[in-house]
Amino acid sequence: MSELLARHRAVMPAWLALNYTEPIEIVSGKGNRVTDGEGKSYLDFFAGILTNMIGYDVPEVREAVERQLATGVVHTSTAYLLRGQVELAEKIARLSGIPDAKVFFTNSGTEANETALLLATYARKSDQVFAMRQSYHGRSFGAISVTANRAWKNNSLSPLNVHFLHGTDRHLTQFAGLSDADYVKACVDDLRHVLATSVSNDVAALIAEPIQGVGGFTMAPDGLFAAYKEVLDEQGILFISDEVQTGWGRTGSAFFGIQNHGVTPDMLTFAKGLGNGFAVGGVVARGDLMDAPHAVGLSTFGGNPISMAAANATLDFVLDHDLQANAARTGAIIINGLKEAAERLPVVKEVRGKGLMFAVELEGPAQASRFMEETKKAGLLAGKGGLYGNAIRMAPPLTLTVDEAVEGLGIIVTALETINAEAA
Ligand code: PLP
C-alpha cells in the first residue's frame, strides 16, 4: 500500500470508494489526458467524474479564473450584485427551454436536487414525490430519499414519501422481453394504478435522470418520459429533470438530456461539468415556482465569483466550439465500434449510450473490476457503476478528438477481448 493510501485510509471514510486495487494520485492534466504521481499518462474517459467537461488546463477557463482572482474578490457575499452570476443565469435560462425560467446557483448536484425538491414540495404542499428505480440524486436526506440504489439507501430517515416508478428496469423485471411500445404502456398503466390506489392527489413531482448516471447509464425507452409527462400534467404534478450528468450537449443529440424526449420539464438541475472542475451547480425553474415566497433562502457560496468565472468560460467554450456536435461525432465512433465488438464477445451483455455517455454491461462485478485494471494498465481511465456493479461507464471530455476516440476504442476493445478470453 502506498504511503498516501495508508494515510487516506486512516483519516478518510471507509465508504469513500477509490478506483483500482492500487489507487492513483492524479498530479497534472492537459487536454484530455492526466498524469499520475509515477509519471504514467492516461486518456481520461471519465472526465474526472464528468467534471472536466472540456478537458484539463483549458487556457480560456484558467485565464477567466485568474482575471477574477486579480480583482481581489474571491468571495464577498451573494447579497451583492454579481455580474458573472446574472450573465450565466441568462445563458442557462435561455438554453433550458423552460418558459420564464429563473436560475438559483448551488455548489453541488445534491444541493441542486434538494432545492428542486423543496420548491416542488412547497408549491404542491405535499411530501409525496415520484422517482425512478435505479436512480441516484445525491447524498442529502431529500436526495437520498429519491435515490433507488441500496448502496446509498438510508430510507428509514427519509423526509419524503417516495414512490419509485418503472422505466429503466425492463430487463430486470416482469417486463423483460416487452417491446419499447408495450413497456411504455405497461409503465404508464402502472403509474395510473399508483395514482389511483397508492397516493393522495397532491403528489409534488417526478424527479428523473434522462440517462441514469450511477445506475449504469441506463436509459428509458423513447416515448416513456413524454407519456409520463402527459399523465403528470393531468394531475398538476411537476417534472424535475436531473441533468447533473446529461447536460451541456453530452448526449450529442440535445443540449439537455430530457430534450431528447421532446419533454420540457418544469425544473432542471445541473452541476458536475459546468465549472470544468470548479464547484458549481444549480436549479432552473419556471418563474412561478422559483419565486414562491420563503421557498428556499440563500446559499453562501452558491454562485460565487470564482465558480461563475469558470462556468461562464466553460459554457462559452462549449457553445463556441459546438461541442454537442463533437459529442455526437466522436461518441458515434466509439458506440458503433463497441456494438460491433460486442457481437463477437459474449462477455459483453450490452452496449448502450448516447453521444459521449456510454456504458458496457458485463456479466458481473468481477469482470468490471478486471476491465478497470486492464484499461488502467493500457492508459485509460473509466468508471464503474450499475445496480450490480457490473457496468463500465465512460464519459470523456466533450473536447475528445477523433484520434483520441479511435485510440480509446482500441484500448477498450482489447480489454474486452482479454476478459472474454479469460471467461471462455
Ligand atoms: N444527480 C446525479 C444524476 C448525479 O450523478 C450526482 C452525482 O454523481 C448527483 C446528483 C449529486 O451531485 P454531487 O455529487 O455534486 O452532490
TrEMBL record:
Keyword terms of this UniProt record: Aminotransferase, Pyridoxal phosphate, Transferase
Database matches in InterPro entries: Aminotrans_3, PyrdxlP-dep_Trfase, PyrdxlP-dep_Trfase_major, PyrdxlP-dep_Trfase_small
Names of required cofactors: pyridoxal 5'-phosphate
Any one GO molecular function term: alanine-glyoxylate transaminase activity
Group of enzyme by EC: transferase
Protein origin, superkingdom: Bacteria
Pfam families: Aminotran_3
EC number, UniProt record: 2.6.1.44
Assembly mode: Homotetramer.
Family assignment from sequence similarity: Belongs to the class-III pyridoxal-phosphate-dependent aminotransferase family.
Name recorded for this polypeptide: alanine--glyoxylate transaminase
Organism: Nonomuraea longispora
